[in-house]
Amino acid sequence: MRYHYTPEQVRMLVQRAERQLDQAIAASEKDGDGAHLARAVQAAVHDTVVSLTRLFRDHVPGAAEVATRIARAYAKGADARAGVPTLSCVRMIAELVREGRESFMSEAHQ
Q: What is the pLDDT of the chain when averaged over all its residues?
């Protein structure tokens, strides 16, 4: 079943996801090895990336490319030896989300 969100709800969900990514980065910098996500935040980051991909693809008009770029960055950003995304990958995703929000979800664009 597909949900229908208002533009305000989508904006709020994207901003919440941005905060989650920022918190995961901060936690990983504090508790991790400096290169990979801390184990405690891996599942949350995965869920956040999946949600962001769906939001941009299904609920932000014209932003399917942003969803594709997020998904590709996440897929390519896993360290094959460690089996988890690198911090640089998550930082890149956070930047893609900010750019997508600013480009496709600004008040002038609505």
A: 90
**Three-state secondary structure readout of 3-67:** CCCCHHHHHHHHHHHHHHHHHHHHHHHHHCCCCECCHHHHHHHHHHHHHHHHHHHHHCCCCHHHH
Is the confidence at residue 108, as pLDDT, over 50?
A: no
User: What is the per-residue burial (b if ≥16 Cβ within 10 Å, else e) of 65-92?
Assistant: ebbebbbebbeebeeeeeebbbbebbeb
- The DSSP H or E segment spanning 85 is strand 84-85
- How many angstroms separate the CA atoms of 86 and 8, rounded? 31
Decide if 77 contacts 92 (C-beta within 8 A): yes
Distance of CA 30 to the CA centre of its chain: 20
Distance CA 19, CA 28 (A): 14
The encoded tokens of residue 65 equal: 């490319």
Round to whole Å and give the CA distance between 34 and 18: 20
